[in-house]
Specification:
With 160 residues, this protein is mainly alpha-helical. It is 35% helix and 4% strand. A hairpin with a 3-residue loop joins β2 and β3.
C-alpha cells in the first residue's frame, strides 16, 4: 500500500501513483519479488510480514480490494487498486475452497448472538413500556426537593 495524503509532497496522489507504478514495473508479474518489495516500500503494517495479510474471507477488506483480490488466481498479482487509503497491489498466494464449518465450532458464537438479540429485544420491550414522564416529582422520591433557604436541592443526608 502506498498512502495518499495531500498534506505531504511525497504522498500526494500523483507522487503516490508514480511510486506504485514503479513497483508494478519492478514486479513485472513475478510473485517471488512481491514480499521483498512490500517489505521495503509498503506503508501498510503488513509490510513487516512481506505484505501478507493471511487468509482473507470475502467481505473483510475494503470493497475495491475485495473485488480485485477475489478475481485473482493463485500466484497472480493485481493491477493497481485504488481505495480511500491510497494505492495497493495484491498477490493471491492460495485459494482455500469453501467448506462447511462444523456446528460444534460455531455453536458458542451462534448462542452468544442469539442471547444478545434476546437481551436487546427484552430491553426494547421494557423501555417501550415505560411511561413518558416520571410518575414522581421533586420531594416524592424523584428529584430532590429545593431547600427552603434557596441554596439548591435538599439532600437526604446532612453534614455535621
Amino acid at each position: 500500500m502506498i498512502t495518499v495524503n495531500e498534506k505531504f509532497a511525497e504522498s500526494t496522489e500523483g507522487a503516490a501513483r508514480a511510486r506504485i507504478d514503479d513497483l508494478v514495473r519492478r514486479l513485472r508479474g513475478r510473485a517471488n519479488r512481491f514480499g521483498p518489495l512490500a517489505r521495503c516500500y509498503s506503508e501498510c503494517p503488513s509490510a513487516l510480514a512481506d505484505g501478507r495479510l493471511g487468509t482473507v474471507a470475502r467481505g473483510q477488506l475494503y470493497p475495491e480490494l475485495d473485488a480485485a483480490l477475489f478475481r485473482l488466481r493463485p500466484g497472480e498479482i493485481s493491477g493497481v487498486v485504488s481505495s480511500e487509503l491510497g494505492f495497493h497491489l495484491l498477490l493471491c498466494e492460495k485459494i482455500h475452497p469453501w467448506q462447511p464449518v462444523p456446528f460444534a465450532r460455531v455453536r458458542a458464537g451462534i448462542q452468544a448472538r442469539l442471547d444478545e438479540r434476546q437481551r436487546y429485544e427484552c430491553q426494547r420491550r421494557w423501555v417501550a413500556g415505560l411511561p413518558e414522564r416520571p410518575a414522581v416529582g421533586p420531594g416524592q422520591g424523584g428529584a430532590p426537593a429545593e431547600r427552603s433557604d434557596g441554596r439548591g436541592p435538599s439532600l437526604p443526608w446532612s453534614a455535621a
